[in-house]
Write a structure and sequence with these properties.
Length: about 250
């Protein structure tokens, strides 16, 4: 159950793709909750961070997303997931993507190296299995899921009409997924330490069986220059849940 929930959250957190300027040193913390017996119950924490990384040849922006169940839920289904992307600081074009997950005893590690010609070289390893190396092609606008999260905040909603949808493609588990997001309008929500904020309300649609219902998978981001994700609601075949912003620093 929680494994499907986490995958769904990755689809929902990031949805628009436009050239961006993302600030280094940000830290966003969310409480992840799932409906149990009719009540929303906090089960996990999701933390997104940005940092500058300098190599001998290039400067990158290190984007990371970490998910961990709260300790009282670890005996039920322990999650310790880390997703990372190293991108161009200006265009957010990914150069390297890494994923290391522990979900209820299941482990998997992945590393994608993005080539200039649209070729991705991947190395992956599942628990008790041999390492697998692959090479596959992606489209020019295809982006890994962590990079996509931060591209969301660069969207100029002043140029998007209410009801308009934008389409893009993300790569996940060595497959490409078409996703579209429709701008519904504005709504005021509680945004952790930021207080009440007017937010853009977005509806997510994807070619996957992980999402359920029309306008049941929603993202709210602040209707200001910072465009901070504040609330994410999701509906999947096994239930409903949400991510709620609790703390935003360095923005």
């Amino acid at each position: 159950m929680l494994k499907n929930t986490i995958i769904t959250l990755l689809f929902l957190i990031g949805c628009f793709s436009i050239q961006a300027q993302v600030k280094s040193g940000e830290r966003l913390v969310f409480a992840g909750s799932y409906e149990m017996k009719g009540l929303m119950t906090n089960i996990a924490q999701v933390t997104m961070k940005t940092a500058t990384m300098q190599t001998s040849k290039s400067s990158y922006l290190h984007l990371s997303l970490e998910m961990a169940t709260f300790s009282k839920w670890d005996n039920y289904f322990k999650i310790r997931d880390l997703y990372e992307s190293f991108v161009n600081p200006t265009s957010l074009k990914p150069a390297l993507y890494k994923r290391n997950i522990y979900e209820g005893g299941y482990t998997k590690s992945e590393k994608y190296t993005f080539g200039a010609n649209g070729t991705v070289k991947s190395v992956s390893k599942r628990r008790n299995r041999a390492e697998v190396q692959k090479s596959f092609k992606i489209g020019p606008s295809t982006i890994d899921v962590v990079t996509l999260i931060y591209k969301l905040r660069a969207t100029n909603f002043a140029t998007i009409k209410q009801g308009q949808a934008i389409s893009f493609t993300l790569v996940f588990d060595e497959k490409q997924y078409p996703v579209s997001v429709r701008y519904i309008g504005k709504e005021t929500v509680v945004a952790g330490n930021l207080g009440k904020k007017e937010c853009y309300k977005l509806s997510v649609m994807a070619n996957t069986n992980k999402l359920k219902g029309k306008d049941k998978n929603l993202i709210y981001i602040t209707a200001d220059a910072k465009k901070v994700p504040t609330l994410i609601k999701f509906s999947i075949p096994i239930g409903v849940g949400q991510l709620t912003l609790t703390s935003a620093t360095g923005i």
